[in-house]
Amino acid sequence: MYNFNYHTPDTIEDCIKIFNSVEFPKYLAGGMTIIPSLKQKLSTPSDIIDLQNIKTLKGIYLNRRGLSNFFINLMI
Amino acid sequence: MSSNIINFIHKDQIVEVKNPDPNEILLNYIRTTLKKTGTKEGCAEGGCGACTVVLGELKNNEINYKAINSCITFLPTLQGKQLILVEDLTSKDGSLHPVQDAMVNFHGSQCGFCTPGIILSAIEMKNNNISGEKEIRKFLDGNLCRCTGYHNIVKSISEYLDIKIKNV
Question: What ipTM does this complex have?
Answer without folding.
Answer: 0.80
